[in-house]
Write the C-alpha cells for this entry.
Amino acid sequence: VKSSNIYFTYVFIAIGSFILLIAVFNFMNLTTAKSEGRAKEVGIRKTLGSDRSKLIWQFITESTIICFISVAAAYIIIKIVLPSFNNFVGREISFDLFDNFYTIPLLIIFTLAIGILAGSYPAFYLSSFPPSHVLKSRPGKSKSSFRNTLVIIQFAISITLIIGTVIIKNQLDFILNKDIGFNKDKLIVINNASNLGRRVEAFKQEIANIPNVVASTNSSLMFQSGIPGGSFQIENAPESEFKTCQFLDVDFDFAKTYQIKILKGRYFSKDYSTDSNAVVINEAALKIFETENPLGKILYNVKTDEKGKVPYTIIGVVKNFNYESLHQVIRPLVLHISPVRQAGFFLTIRVRTEDYASTINLINQTWRNFTRGKNLNCTVLNDNLENQYKDEIKIGQITTLFTLLAIFIACLGLFGLAAFITEKRVKEIGIRKALGASEFEIVLMLTKEFTKWVIIANLIAWPVSFFVMNKWLQNFAYRIELNWIVFILSGLIALAIA
C-alpha cells in the first residue's frame, strides 16, 4: 500500500474476517446437512478396514483442496477488480505474489488453516458414523443444533453490519447537514491567497466588480488542524487565571461574507479607528470568561516575550460557528482585525449563483493579473468541508458494499440449507397437504424455524452493534444519538431476507 490509513486497514480486516467466517460456516453447514449423502461411503470404507483417522484426513484434504482452488480464483478476481477498487477507495493498493518473499508461504499457511478450520467439524462428524447403522440407512441423528448455531452467528454478523452501515450513513448525513453557525453555501475559497502579498485589498476591490461576487474576506486558515491559540485574561481576573483561546486574523468583511450572526455588540467597522485594538469573541469564549456583559471589558493577550500583556477591548460576541472539523468541539475563539500574521491564509468569496465555473474563470483572470500568471488554487467551500470526512464517507461506502456481499453469502448458505431441509420433508409436506393444509400453512411451518434463528441473532447483534458504533461515534464532537429504531429496523430487514 503506497498511501494508506490504518483506519482503512482495520476496517478491511474486520469486514474481510466477518465475510470469511460466514463462508466457513456455510461450508460446515452445507457439508454436515448433506451428511446422509456420504454416509454409505463412510460405512463401506470402515467395513473395508479404513480407520477413522484416514477418513478425517480425507475430508480435511477435500476442504483444503477447495480452499486452494478458491484462492486461485480469488487471485484472478483481485487482479481484475483491483484497479476499480483503488479508484473507488482513493488508495493505491497493490497485490503481487512476488512482491515479498513471505507472501506465498503466508498465503499457503492461511489457506491450509482455513481449509482445516472449514473441514474439521464435517470431518469429525462424518467419520463418526457407525458402519452398522449407516448400511442399514440409519446414519444417526443429524446434529442440527450445531448447524442452527452457525446460522445464528452468520445472521448476527450480517445484522451487525446492517446496523453499522445505517448508523454510519446517518452520522455522515448529520455532520454534512448540521447548522455550523454560518451559511456555507455559495462560498468559493482561494487556498493560496498568500501569493497576493500586500495586494489582497486591491484584489478584493477588483473582484467586487464581477457580477456574481457578493462579498469577499481574507483570514487566517480555518477548517483544518493547527488553528493557533494563546493565553488570554479578562480584566479583574486573578493574576494567575489564564484561559486558552484560539484566535483568527480577519478583516472587516469576515462576518458579512460568512454571514455570521452577531449576538452582542457589533462587528469590526472602518468607522471606528480604535478597532485595531479591539476583539470579537464567540459564545464559547464568553462562557469561560464567566461574564454576562463582556462589552467594553479589556481582554489581555498574555505573551511569553517582552510584550507581556497586550490589551484589547471586547466589542462584540458572535454566535458559535465551526471553524474546525466537526470531530472537534467548538473551542473559545478570539477574532482580531489585522493583516494575517501567519504564513498561509485564504480568501473566501461569496457568490450569488452555484454556477461556479464561469465565476471562477473571471476570478482567475483577475488573479493572473495580480500574481503575474501564477496558478489559482480555488475550491468550493462545501467540497472542502466534505473532504474533512472523506475517510468516514469511504468507510460508509465500503461498509455498505461489503455488507451486501456478506448478506449475499449468508443467504446462499441459508438458501442451500433451507432447500435441503425442505427436500427432506417432502413426504411430510405431501401428507399435510393431503390432510388439507394450505400453502400458506406449509410456508409458515417451513419458515418458522428460520424466523426463530433470526430473532436469536438479533439478541446477539444488538448489544455488540451498540458497543462498537457508540465507540466509533466518540470520534465526533457532534454526533447522532443511537436510536433503537435502527436496531429494530435492521432486524426486520434480516428477517425479511431470511
The mean pLDDT is 82.
